Amino acid sequence: MGAASGSCKQGLVALYMIAEVDVDIIIADYPQLALLCWNLPGVQTISEERALAIYEERWRHLDEAALTKEEQDLIKRLADEHGGGALCV
What we know:
Blueprint: H1 2-19, E1 25-26, H2 31-36, E2 45-46, H3 48-58, H4 69-82
Antiparallel strand pairs: 1-2
Helix pairs in contact: 3-4
């Protein structure tokens, strides 16, 4: 039983390590982001940091009324995790 317990702990450590890896954002999942990425033809994913930078740099071109709940949540999470809690627009 002790060996199983040790391997469970190793599995949990591996899971936490995987969870900390940055996952790219699929541009097409977020309609306003897709519009803001007009100059990235053929690019399907971008890093979270790059997505935040694009939102901040091109905010004036974004239709806030057209933001889905999912995209609003994404923007808030990106600002919280990569922008010090603030969206610089």
